[in-house]
Queue: 2 jobs
Job 1
Amino acid sequence: MRIVVDAMGSDGHPGPDVAGAVLAAREFGDTIILVGDQARIEAELAGQDITKLSLEVRHAAQAVNMTDKPSVVVKSKPDSSMHVGLSLVKSGEADAFVSAGNTGAVLGIAMLRQVGLGRIPGVKRPALGVMFPTRERPFLVDNGANADCRPEYMPQFGLMGSLYMEQVVGIRNPRVALVSNGEEEGKGNMLIKEALPLLQASGLNFIGNIEPKEFMRGAADVALTDGFTGNIMMKTAEAIASYMSDLIRDELMANPLTAVGGLLAKSAFGRVRRLLDPHEVGGAPLLGVNGVVIIGHGRSNAYAIKQAVGQARQMVAHNIVMAITTGVANSKLAE
Amino acid sequence: MRIVVDAMGSDGHPGPDVAGAVLAAREFGDTIILVGDQARIEAELAGQDITKLSLEVRHAAQAVNMTDKPSVVVKSKPDSSMHVGLSLVKSGEADAFVSAGNTGAVLGIAMLRQVGLGRIPGVKRPALGVMFPTRERPFLVDNGANADCRPEYMPQFGLMGSLYMEQVVGIRNPRVALVSNGEEEGKGNMLIKEALPLLQASGLNFIGNIEPKEFMRGAADVALTDGFTGNIMMKTAEAIASYMSDLIRDELMANPLTAVGGLLAKSAFGRVRRLLDPHEVGGAPLLGVNGVVIIGHGRSNAYAIKQAVGQARQMVAHNIVMAITTGVANSKLAE
């Protein structure tokens, strides 16, 4: 397998991105193609033991920043590492693209017909899926590709999410739900109320509305939401988990007895932290584009990049693009 | 002061509601009017020491359930404890109404022109405010009164939230922000993008977009959102906090050493739990109706009911209804 890693993606690029690519090449034995500023990539590689690894470097003269406006950079930075990397997938020189960079920019460039991948025929809108970092690892779609959604997107998000969970994660007949502020029919905003009958008629294993509490405890395998709400949900969950960790640390340190307790309990806290760590789950697959694309967290470290590559490999191995292509073509949900 | 407590509100009614009313009468010395099934209220009071307390009971023949559809019960249960309780505020026999019951029903009944309070003149939509249960206690508006919002509601939510924070909580010149999936201008869904210029022109102390992480750490005093997103945010935060507590307990118990650590650290965990406990913050003020209304958490215990009464007292004492009436009349934000 040949997997592209955007060396200019993460907040701390190119360090974590290059180190993650090296970890991935070593663990998976695949060819990793690092795309970005050649000199900076090679400087990072110089500090690594890369004997016997299959690593290639492809120069890209530009890099997209987190603050770049996606609609602008799509055109203004035609030589960005994202453009170059995605075009390798388009041309068949690579099987997948992994970036921890600007989500909107990856989306926009992936959708370009010339260098990018474009949509799978019949897909109304590509969507970002994300594994929620609780023990049950439920899958949330959309996590931010579409800030505003129409009700008819939801059944397709459900189909793509179901295929991902079935093909890549191995869950049979995944349960699909709509995220809402109450479980009863009739709860929710206009989007949820209008999407509900569409999902009931979709042929998916739709189980109705679900509240955040039930979602994160695994009452559904795939939960659907517009990209704005989904993104706010993920960010709230991450923020509260980190807030609570800080608070516990502060309170433990406030007195010697609890500080000793905290020390003895350290391994338990470590397990909790690792379980809830967004770095563990890899990245967010961009579903509905005509190729395998994973968008990692901006704060990705090398381990997170490696996990995202592992996830991309699974998507390639289980041919998720073909599964979605066939699934959409055979469903009544196509455009 | 005379404050109505809906005895039929909480999930466990009338126990917590009556016990909370007794706590409030004792702590604040006010008259508490318990409204609901007289026999059941008196049975609860029989188990309490209520000598020297000013408690009244007003019978209401019907009770609203959590599963009742608000649009239906507004008309189908005209003798509910909510109808009776709110009409006491309307007629001037009481100063405020506190209920831990069905939020939609309280809203709907409060808006009735005959028995309810109706809107303050010029208010486009009443909104639920809620103190976010982090140490900084920022205020979120709307927490679920309006699942679908128009951009022009946001400046009024900001005005009402600012007046609440200024008058009731005592924060000078409160900072107002829009909750979004990114801080940069241009981030957000259509609602946020269209609300931004309206807020910039509103005369409020508007500081721009804010992400959940910054919000919960107190970067703004008042954060604005539509009621659907706000409710999902609050529910996600509560769910993650409770999920993490359970996880920590499980992991501590998994081995004897960490279990001893957990025991020694118990007081620290207790402080964290209390700090993040939604019961501490009281309830959600319904801003924009022509009277003081607090809606408590369905899972309220007696302490939470007492806290909600305390919050209602503050709103009466600082005449928040008059402040909003004047504020809206003097602003360019009226209908």
Job 2
Amino acid sequence: MKLLEDRIKSEGRILPGNVLKVSSFLNHQLDPTLIMELGKEFARLFEKEAPNKILTIETSGIPIAFATGAALKIPVIFAKKHKTSNIFGDAYNSVVHSYTHGCDYTVIVEREFLNQGDRVLLIDDFLANGKALDGLLEIVEQAGAKAVGAGIAIEKGFQEGGARLRSNGLKVESLAIIDHMDENSITFLE
Amino acid sequence: MKLLEDRIKSEGRILPGNVLKVSSFLNHQLDPTLIMELGKEFARLFEKEAPNKILTIETSGIPIAFATGAALKIPVIFAKKHKTSNIFGDAYNSVVHSYTHGCDYTVIVEREFLNQGDRVLLIDDFLANGKALDGLLEIVEQAGAKAVGAGIAIEKGFQEGGARLRSNGLKVESLAIIDHMDENSITFLE
């Protein structure tokens, strides 16, 4: 999506460790007009899959998931992060490893919000190793629901998550796929 | 705002300690159609104050702030919560006490996103003691910016935050003000 790629090129900053900082428009500071367009694009890309719920993970997935939910007029659930791995008796839960932060955390979704028969569209801001999506997929499975696809704003195409999830049969649509980035330049897959 | 009050009456649950749980539409699970309407209402209420930025606090303030930013077509900044009180040299920061969680946390906003001359509209989901708004006001002051008002989805009118902030001269607009609640009923101020 050219709109997003252009914005990444003009405002993105690449930090050591292949961290792409887009905090001027996608997290910390949000550009609602841009993000509403991303939401409309995800709605277009996944309309045929007929999702009835969107699932994302706090914090930075929320605005994009919300915009997609506004476009599709369906509820948005955000999985909550916990640092402890207490037993959450009344909640679906899974453990996610964060490479960015070098730690594990538990994500939970209360049982009342996901059920058998739900057709769930996963939305997140970044896809790299795919560990966050793995965690959300596990929660969808615990609920007996079906994941109908995953919409990602920015995929790091040089990391393995996207290829692995697609080869497992998940429909993954990323609005910008980074082919290569270093401190001087960033290139996208066509 | 009748739309919100009706939803609170039908889906809100009151837990011990005067905690109002609205996680089926305002946090955890979000109703984007409802929340977009709340955003439009805040845009209408604060249009005259000509805000150029919105400031909220993660996590549950984000959707409402985002919807307001989408209606006003201005950027939305969310202050990030940290459990440590490290020195954040490059960020505005303040310490907030959470009565709900019984702990202090630090909220930060990177300096590049708030500047002198900014007219900042604060948005949050709940107002009770007003400690979160106090923290955001302190950050606005550190930036040399001006807080032009605060838009709140649900105010607990029986707690002191709203009265205190209004008497300090802040324009506070709450879409639903709870007069009284217990396990059996909830009433709103007209």
